[in-house]
Amino acid sequence: IRKKQYQHQRFDVDLYPDPEAFPLKQGDFIGRLGNSGYSFGPHLHFEIRKTATQVPVNPMLFNLPIKDDVPPVLQQLVVYHLNEKHEVVREKIYPVAKKSDGSYSVPRILEEPAWRVAFGLKAYDQMDGTYNRNGIYALEMDVDGNTSYGFRMDEIPFHLTRYLNAHIDYRLKKRGKGNVNRLYQLPGNRLDIYMSREENGIVDLYENKPRDIEITVSDAEGNESRLTFQATRDTEIPPPDKPVYHFTVPYDKPFQLRKDGITIEMKAGTFYEDTYLDYAYESSNKNDAAGMYSIGGNEIPVHQYFDLSIDASGLELPDRERAFIAHIDDRGRIYNLGGRWKGNTIHARSRSLGQFTILADHEPPQIRPISFGKKMTGWKSMSFLIRDDLRTGGDANDLKFEATVDGSWILMEYDGKNDKITHRFDGKIGPGEHTLRIRVLDDRGNETVLEESFIL
């Protein structure tokens, strides 16, 4: 790998060795537990894939010698009140209690002010001797003794993994409520993990006629947890709250918005269900500043990138190559989405809703020594912090860096979670006095160069 890194003069290389390149037999040492890259804890990354398609398969289906006698833990039941289009108009969250026999229940018969409902379940799974809270493997929901919904996490192709934002309740997750499994399938959810049932988990409610609901959650070892309860329709059903919105975006049709100088173009499948977007525009009274566009919000999951462009013909932007379309999230953080100019219009892509405007980046990146000295004889490595003041998204590039010693390229390992680059002295730099040069470039062309001499 190091040979390829020097050959391509870059740290990140994507290699597909021939099957004969690394002959292995059972019991050979192949790696160490580590915490490099973007990981946030020591771990061993382990996958089983189908060779022909590269689709990952649940490794717990292969009789690995892992002891697991722990059934899944059920935490909360969510009841969604639905309109005639099966859209959520309100929700209720109920705690679930574990009984002495190991099963779960809710405190009482659920009397819901709705003609029809669907459910969500917050749950996790564990194994013997571990603290990890894993996702659940399989679930089945029966209504009056008949299966109405279910799923099994056997395999998920990489190109479908983002649909997990439709499998969970994304809005509750953004509110810090954790991962709630929807017990019904959104119309734009293309995951192939569900049992095909006409009811799709939707339950009609009746007055004085309780529906018997049983939800069974299981892990790959067959350990099960079961939640049973009854649900009826309340005698009084309040009218649904009417959401304030300006545009309706069907999940299965393209959508275009042209207004106040902004253009947004979305392909069919951008959302998982018909989505209602609010819109606001606040103009700026400065000649060199664009107005602020507010579209939707951060609690709406966006499946694929959409195109957006802003007409800047009325703005005085003397340094156009430094300008970019900015996305401001709900915490006020600014993301550089990039910016391609066509005439007086700047273009970018986004996979998030929220606030958008045009900003300019004149701030060069930072380079700061972490482990470096004028005399490093006997040292094993040197490292530096590289950082930019803006986050990136859309079409914008992350920081680019290059390091040379005496004009020759050297390998710098990049630790993204700590913004750190490290060179491990591997014999390519001989003893004596040398000149180090590090060049860091951000998406808008701002550059920082560090030059230092050192003795090895």
Structure write-up:
The protein is mostly beta strands and 456 residues long. The protein contains three helices and 35 strands. The chain has helices spanning 2-8, 164-167, 170-174; strands spanning 48-49, 56-57, 73-82, 88-95, 97-98, 104-105, 110-112, 116-124, 138-143, 146-152, 180-182, 203-204, 211-218, 224-233, 247-249, 255-259, 262-266, 275-277, 279-282, 292-295, 306-311, 323-328, 334-336, 340-342, 345-350, 354-360, 366-371, 381-387, 391-392, 400-405, 408-409, 413-415, 420-424, 433-441, 447-455. The strands form eight sheets. Strands 5, 6, 7, 9, 10, 13 and 14 form a seven-stranded mixed β-sheet that branches. Strands 19-20-26-22-23-29 form a six-stranded mixed β-sheet, with no helix packed on it. β5 and β6 form a beta hairpin. The radius of gyration is 27 Å and the shape is flat.
Number of strands: 35
- The low-confidence parts are none
- Structure class: mainly beta
Radius of gyration: 27 Å
Note the main sheet.
7 strands, mixed
Overall geometric form: flat
Q: Which whole number gives the mean pLDDT? A: 94
Percent of residues in helices:
under 10%
Distance between the termini: 25 Å
Report the β-strand fraction as a percent range: 35-45%
- DSSP helical segment count: 3
